[in-house]
Amino acid sequence: MNSLARRPSRRAMPNLRAAFGRHLRQLRGRRGWSQDFLGAKAGLSHKFIGEVERGKKSISLDNLAHLARALRVPLVAMLKGLKNRKGRPAGSGRGPRTSASR
Predict the structure, then answer these.
(1) Treating both helix axes as pointing N-terminal to C-terminal, what angle do 61-71 and 12-30 enclose, rounded to 10 degrees?
(2) Going by C-beta distance under 8 Å and a sequence separation of 6 or more, which residues neighbour residue 4?
(3) Which of 19, 25, 84, 101 allows an S-S link to 53, with CB 3.0 to 4.6 Å?
(4) 49 C-beta neighbours (distance < 10 Å), count
(5) Whole-structure pTM over 0.85, yes or no?
(6) Which helix H or strand E contains 83, and what residues bound it?
(7) How far is CA 90 from the centre of its chain?
């Protein structure tokens, strides 16, 4: 595997889901919408919205597009600026491995 194209570790994935969930909750909250209301607009269940916001469920690209359309934001805005709780880009781990860092 190319050392510069390293995938995030499995341990980093829950952090990425949690960061996305916090971002989704923020987008929904700015509009004053409930999970029920967002779910109805996006064609998704309120239970699923809640699980995504808590970082318990991963989200497909199709469902991401449904949420972006419902929230009236560009798809890229759903992912832009995600950061984990330590302020690092979510899913980044410790950064890319280089041959010098092995």
Answers:
(1) 20
(2) 96, 97, 98
(3) 25
(4) 27
(5) no
(6) none
(7) 9
- Distance between CA atoms of 22 and 53, rounded to whole angstroms? 6
Domain ranges of the chain: 12-81
Within 10 A of 27 (CB to CB), how many other CB atoms are there?
A: 19
Calpha distance 49→36 (Å, rounded): 8
Alpha helices in 1-102 (DSSP H): 12-30, 35-42, 46-53, 61-71
Q: Which of 76, 71, 69 is nearest to 28 (CA)?
A: 71
Instruction: Give per-residue pLDDT as tens, 51-86.
Output: 999 999 999 999 999 999 999 999 999 988 786 555
Residues present in the chain in total: 102
